[in-house]
Task: structure prediction
Amino acid sequence: MIPLLLLFFQQPWGTTHAGKPVPQFTDGEECLFCHRNEIGAAWQMNAHGITVNEKAGTEEFTLGSRNHVRRLKKAGYNKFAIWESGWNETKFGDRCAGCHTTAVDPATKSFAYYGLDCYTCHGVVDLKHSGDTTLVLLSKKRRNEDPVINAICASCHLRGSLSKSTKLPYPNNFVPGDNLFLDLQVDWAQADNADLNPGDRHVYRSARDVEQKGSTTTCINCHSVHTGSSERHRRVLSSAICNDCHFEGQPRKEVRKYTVRSIICEYP
Ligand code: HEC
Ligand code: HEC
Ligand code: HEC
Ligand code: HEC
Ligand code: HEC
Ligand code: HEC
Result:
């Protein structure tokens, strides 16, 4: 009796910071003061950290680093203009900032830092964590919160989503730990879209399976962010998403070829 009723009135998990002020958080410089040895060196080359990078000797910045690059320059307090056929002063804030810079205030569309700082994944970190690592998200002792971890990666990687409150194509003040999906409208049909290439589709499918089907295989079962490696995916024995990239019944070394595309990031 009761379980059925509960099903109808079940509250979604977690909280949201949509519409609230950006919280105070510790910046990466301070984190690296203590974590320089294990994190610092590789962080200088991590695609997340350098997704926006200052171009030495110029007034300009680069957006992207691996396959596609765009030009940026400062345009007011913690805002960028993006180059198309001329400098566009509004587009970066309206369409890009939330996933390529840190702690964007949706009201002003200005960021706290350019590039992605520790906060974007680890959230507001209690400095008492140095004595008790259960206090910090994504620590070795906090790997079992699958929907929470999933929401962190999904906050940027489900490209094509829309904030219900701002109508912007990126989350409204998402703070790691939050339930992203209370404010972000996601087109989950992409998870089964046979026309989508495997590289893009596996992200949707992985996020959908964790959020809606109770899968316990999150992005970080396969990806290691700090080493930039997907080596550990070989240890995942099976998951519905293997055949996005491999072929059913064939040796795993056979891999589907794919090229990641994105209308949102303008490399369709
Ligand atoms: C705040 C936004 C944001 C969050 C949160 C985020 N990513 Fe990313 N991620 C990006 C962006 C932007 C890039 C591309 C950077 C570039 O090339 O300029 C990227 C690139 C990547 C890449 C390809 C580059 C590489 O290093 O191999 C992987 C894999 C990846 N992210 C996995 C993850 C996982 C796993 C999580 C969750 C733990 C996560 N990301 C969280 C924005 C984000
Ligand atoms: C919803 C979050 C989101 C928004 C909004 C967004 N990006 Fe991205 N962007 C990403 C992620 C995630 C990646 C990495 C994807 C991957 O490698 O699979 C990325 C990668 C990139 C890259 C590097 C790709 C490469 O392979 O080297 C460029 C350049 C880029 N984005 C430009 C833009 C521009 C320009 C805008 C705004 C017009 C924008 N992005 C808006 C999330 C976003
Ligand atoms: C894009 C998401 C992301 C960003 C940004 C990020 N981290 Fe992490 N961090 C992770 C994930 C995921 C883990 C869990 C281990 C793994 O999968 O790599 C982790 C683990 C760690 C660990 C524990 C090491 C371990 O082996 O478990 C430390 C320390 C750490 N991060 C510090 C930092 C610092 C300092 C910064 C900023 C300079 C930062 N992280 C930025 C995602 C991120
Ligand atoms: C005053 C020093 C100090 C500062 C500042 C600091 N940490 Fe830590 N952190 C530690 C110590 C000590 C540990 C526990 C030992 C270890 O695992 O490195 C730890 C552990 C961690 C872990 C878990 C590692 C594991 O083994 O599971 C993560 C993740 C982490 N810190 C992230 C951060 C982030 C992100 C920041 C910035 C917001 C930060 N730390 C700031 C000292 C610090
Ligand atoms: C079952 C393992 C697995 C899971 C779960 C998984 N991935 Fe992947 N992902 C991979 C493998 C393997 C690759 C290919 C890496 C390569 O080519 O070296 C990849 C590639 C990527 C890329 C790189 C695309 C590019 O630019 O070339 C991104 C970004 C990414 N995954 C993000 C995610 C995110 C975000 C999640 C969670 C929502 C996720 N993945 C879940 C295994 C997985
Ligand atoms: C996003 C694409 C992607 C997904 C999803 C994916 N793989 Fe892979 N897999 C690759 C790529 C690319 C390689 C070759 C490079 C490498 O080792 O990372 C590979 C290699 C492997 C290898 C090593 C094969 C050999 O003989 O060298 C194994 C084992 C493997 N995958 C298992 C799996 C399993 C099990 C799953 C599902 C849980 C899975 N993969 C999901 C892309 C993927």
Notes: Residues 28-43 form the longest helix (16 residues). The chain has eight helices and nine strands.
